[in-house]
Amino acid sequence: MDKILEQIKKVINNSIKEYMPEVKPENLEENGAIYYMNGQNGTEWDYYVNEHLSYFMVFYNDKENLGAAKLNLYPDGYYTLYLYNKKGKNLLKTIDSKIDAVENDVLKFATLLKVQMDDKDNWDANIDKIDANKGPTEEELNDFKNAEKDFERTKNRFRIFHKMAYVSRKILDEGYKVGYMIREEPLNDNDSGWQFMAGNEDDEYLNEHNNLSLLSINEINNLDSDIFKYLDCPVGSEFIRISSNDFEEDHKDKPIFIERR
Questions:
Q1: What is the pLDDT of residues 179-221, one digit of tens each?
Q2: Which of 118, 169, 197, 252 would you label with 61, given CA atoms 20 to 30 Å apart?
Q3: Same structural domain for residues 20 and 144?
Q4: DSSP 3-state of 108
């Protein structure tokens, strides 16, 4: 494990020296400390859903505290390194390469990060907190592997974020939450099949095409994230909102709970 950590340190530090010689250690947070940014999602989420480890970052030490370097390590050992000059305001260079590690090595390293950082509440912390010579136990490794199935549905939901769906202007313009949603057969590869309504539209309203808009699932989820856990449901699924935060299958025997955001 120390081999991977040392390579990450070497890649980041040498790249800053080579491509940003004007940036001195005193210009950086903790003289160039590297932080493991697991605080937003956690190691398991990033590894299984985003398909990379949480970012390794170096920050400028001024008031804005923007990033100077950001390394993204993938399960196969490849990485992307972003370098930012002008105190973090300009992307200077992107470097794609590979560390000396195979997928099983990175898996063990991810487990180590989860155990020593996430499990100990070391969020967005200096990587010097990692005891890289202490590899994960077999039990810890198996626990990390077993977590993959818990994230499979989440991955499937994110896979359709770029696909399109019809959404009522009552949701877009009048601030209503999604009250009714149905997934029909997609028309093409770019279509999710989903339609999202507030639940208080009548036939006359829906027959006017200007009252419906075509947006990406991502854009609609940004308006109402309550829909997220249903996005991977199959064609034929039909749900109504029954409370501020919950939906259930529509059996045509309950009124739709209608609410503004």
A1: 999 999 999 999 999 999 999 999 999 999 999 999 999 999 9
A2: 118
A3: yes
A4: helix
